[in-house]
Amino acid sequence: MAASLSFGTLMNFGDKTSNNSDSWQDANTALAELDKGLRSSKTGEQCEAIVRFPSLFEKYPFPILINSALLKLADVFRVGSNFLRLCILKRIYSVIHSNDPVARAITVRVLGSIACIVSERKNVHHSIRSSLESHDQVELEAAIFATDRLCAQSREFASGLYNKIVQLIEGLSTPVEMKLKLIPIFRHMHYDLQLTAKVHELCSSLLASHPACHFVVVTLHTLSCLAVSSVIDIPKQAELLLKYLAQDPRKVVKNHTLTDLRMLAKGTPHMWRLQHIEALCEFILSSCYDNLKFAALRTMVTLSRSVAADLLNCDKAVAALTSELLVNIAVAGIKSDKEDVGLCEQAAAAVESCAVVCCISGQLQPLKVCLLSMNSLVDSYPQAASSLVESVSSLLPTSSGDVALALCRAMVTMATQIPSVLTPLRSEIVSHFAKVVISADDDSKESKDLVVCVF
């Protein structure tokens, strides 16, 4: 009895295995036929193959088969004609009317992923708008994703959906995490000034009514992206970000604010004003967090790369004092046996650049501050002497009067600190020193002694 039962079980298992094998073979044969139709040179046969794919999925619901078939359809959509894309889109779009919210969600995500193709189709607009009203979280998240993609492509869709998004954000029934996903959609609403102004007003009210960290970070970033796209609101947005940078005590908010400020500096440095740069400098000086100082300095560096942002603002005295401060810090490190070669090189480059600017503009007092800083740096860090002397000597041919005299004095001082530093340049600078002496006042004995110091 047991033997016959075991034999019967084996026979049933063999039949099932045989049936599965036959099903796989039939499925592969059907897929091969459809693939042949897709590769056909006749548009009619290609469309027929596309239409037959749903029946293939229903008859052979094997994951591997479905995955392979979808990849083939994706290739046709990628390299095929617009007519074939439309045929595939129609088969996809029909799922939007399904009673299964997950199926609708997947369809909406597909529509969002091909937003550049379907951005102006009214039925797609309507379907995504309807999905935004869904009570199913999966479908709602998919609708938010698709809305974000389509708003970036369609002016009509973005303008028409503004009131709906506002309603969802202000609605008490909308979860907080959904509101945080809806707010970034506003960054695409830059198509006209009126819409941009409405978005700015709404986000400003959200900042006041929702002071939570995540809300502030997301809203500020959305406004920053909107400002970069619309351009005209850059000064206003910079002021808002600097306000939160100075007043908000939360480190996370400050960090994201600095990231947004750097984005503004990259996109539109010419829109920055002097008070914005001054506020950023004040933050750098007052902040006690090194990572925040680093982020703020990166913004300053980004601004300095553009000729549109005049960081010196013709106030060479401030630049000279800043260079002197950097030199003093480097010298103090050397005297305390904590020499930082990198810092010394930075100080040398800073004071050298500032001296060039002051010399070109004829600013004597700031130039003297820079030259004294050079002498102080050379006294503690002799390695910088050769480059500094070479830089100063290159300024002599185009200088005259008190400016040239100050340059000569600085070079002579360096020669007393390091006697051999002027030797390679002696033949070049003697004539310049002589011109300075000749043009100087006869009563100035100090100026006439300069040429003697060269030898």
Question: What attributes characterize this protein structure?
Answer:
Integrator complex subunit 7; mainly alpha; about 0% strand; elongated; INTS7_N; single chain; ARM-type_fold; about 450 residues
Compressed to H and E, one letter per element, the order equals: HHHHHHHHHHHHHHHHHHHHHHHH
> Low-confidence segments, ≥5 residues, pLDDT <50?
1-17
Cα radius of gyration in angstroms: 36 Å
The proportion of residues in beta strands is under 5%
List the total number of helices. Answer: 24
Helix-strand category: mainly alpha
Helix content: over 70%
Shape: elongated
E-strand count: 0
Mean pLDDT: 81
| Oligomer class | single chain
| Biggest sheet record | none
The CA-CA distance between the termini, in Å, is 123 Å
Protein name: Integrator complex subunit 7
Domain Integrator complex subunit 7 N-terminal: 88-454
Family: Belongs to the Integrator subunit 7 family.
InterPro entries: ARM-type_fold, INTS7, INTS7_N
Describe the protein in words.
With 455 residues, the protein is mainly α. It is 77% helix and 0% strand. Residues 1-17 have low confidence and may be disordered.
Task: Describe the protein's topology.
Layout: H1 2-38, H2 43-59, H3 63-79, H4 82-93, H5 101-113, H6 115-118, H7 122-131, H8 137-151, H9 155-170, H10 176-182, H11 193-209, H12 213-230, H13 234-247, H14 251-267, H15 274-286, H16 290-304, H17 316-335, H18 341-361, H19 364-380, H20 385-395, H21 401-417, H22 426-439, H23 445-448, H24 450-453
Helix pairs in contact: 1-2, 1-3, 2-4, 3-4, 5-7, 5-8, 7-8, 11-12, 12-13, 12-14, 13-14, 13-15, 14-16, 15-16, 17-18, 17-19, 18-19, 18-20, 19-21, 20-21, 21-22
